[in-house]
Design goal:
The protein contains 5 helices and no strands.
Length: 125
């Protein structure tokens, strides 16, 4: 199982590390002074995580129901990390808005998959 989901597990560990890392160190890195860049980062991290999960399972005849079940992992993982930020870190706070942007990343990834599957429907049968 670890071998099958190696990219998803690697991305999960990276997200875990970044989510629990000292906020003072992360605040030193300003990216072009874009307001709310952290929310954009949440969206892209969870888009990448869900996309890697889809990529690693698409050969297993993924259907809409199983795709939604697979989406539960990054969704609850994101919620767990926000709870951990609030409880075990001293420089981080959990945020409901982070959960919203995590979820948007997951939804965009699934929508992107539906578009790809529709355009290339012959290859995914």
């Amino acid at each position: 199982m670890i071998k099958r989901y190696k990219y998803s597990l690697l991305l999960s560990l990276i997200i875990l590390y970044l989510s629990l890392k000292n906020a003072d160190e992360l605040n030193k890195v300003q990216f072009l002074n874009i307001p709310h860049f952290d929310k954009i980062a949440h969206l892209f991290m969870y888009f990448a995580l869900m996309s890697s999960i889809i990529f690693e399972t698409w050969k297993a005849a993924i259907n809409n129901h199983s795709l939604l079940l697979l989406a539960l992992f990054p969704f609850f993982f994101g919620i767990l990390l926000e709870i951990l930020q609030s409880t075990i870190t001293t420089t981080r706070n959990g945020s409901f808005y982070d959960v919203i942007f995590n979820t948007l990343g997951i939804i965009l990834s699934i929508a992107f998959w539906f578009v790809i599957r529709y355009v290339y429907k012959e290859k995914f049968r």
